[in-house]
Task: inverse folding
């Protein structure tokens, strides 16, 4: 938990924000969001229907931002691929390496080997946003680290969401609707908080929202079956994590 808090605090660094923003095609994203809004306005006029235009534009902007992030910016890594043999490499070991940033936390390195030519390749699981802005690859934790940083760099309030059943995503504060909006860059989803329990069938336990100024237990907003959720959240575990948050 301390590592996640320190990681989120780095997103307030102005130099890091500028580095993240330098890659974002803001004009293109804004134009595409505006085009989607105009198309919606045209349909609404034909149906003589009122629109919440500010809310819609905000939603379309987040969709377009995630779409760019997934398709054009960050790469997903399941396994390493041998560039010479064009086959998936085999995971042969994991090891830990001490990070160079401050505060420094060890990070995991997955070591892969090609079964045909013997080439060895490393996949570092960085907790350092500055390093990830260079590598632009990873799985859900790396994706969410950089997406959350980009949202902060764009001037939005953002929270890093950590699901104890093995997933991460981002929440973005809407100044239009005065609420937190669920954004999952890995899945390309905006405002679909029940997808994990209802769509994926996950048995959720604890979900923490980590911002630069607080930590909140937000598990309940991601569940529609609170009775089953309560049974899984054993009282002693709730006390353990609550005391950790209060520290």
Result:
């Amino acid at each position: 938990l301390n590592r996640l808090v320190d990681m989120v605090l780095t997103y307030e660094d102005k130099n890091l924000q500028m580095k993240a923003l330098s890659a974002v095609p803001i004009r293109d994203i804004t134009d595409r969001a505006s085009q989607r809004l105009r198309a919606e306005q045209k349909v609404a006029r034909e149906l003589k229907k009122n629109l919440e235009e500010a809310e819609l534009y905000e939603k379309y902007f987040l969709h377009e931002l995630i779409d760019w992030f997934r398709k054009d910016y960050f790469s997903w890594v399941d396994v390493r691929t041998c560039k010479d043999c064009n086959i998936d490499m085999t995971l042969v070991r994991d090891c830990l390496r001490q990070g160079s940033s401050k505060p420094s936390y060890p990070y995991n390195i997955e070591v892969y080997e090609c079964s045909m030519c013997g080439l060895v390749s490393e996949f570092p699981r960085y907790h350092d946003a500055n390093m990830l802005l260079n590598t632009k690859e990873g799985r859900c934790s790396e994706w969410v680290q950089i997406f959350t940083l980009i949202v902060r760099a764009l001037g939005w309030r953002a929270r890093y969401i950590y699901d104890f059943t093995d997933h991460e995503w981002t929440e973005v504060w809407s100044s239009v609707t005065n609420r937190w909006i669920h954004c999952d860059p890995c899945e390309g989803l905006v405002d679909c908080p029940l997808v994990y329990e209802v769509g994926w069938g996950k048995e959720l336990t604890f979900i923490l929202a980590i911002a630069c100024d607080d930590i909140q237990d937000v598990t309940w907003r991601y569940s529609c079956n609170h009775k089953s959720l309560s049974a899984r959240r054993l009282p002693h575990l709730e006390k353990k994590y609550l005391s950790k948050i209060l520290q």
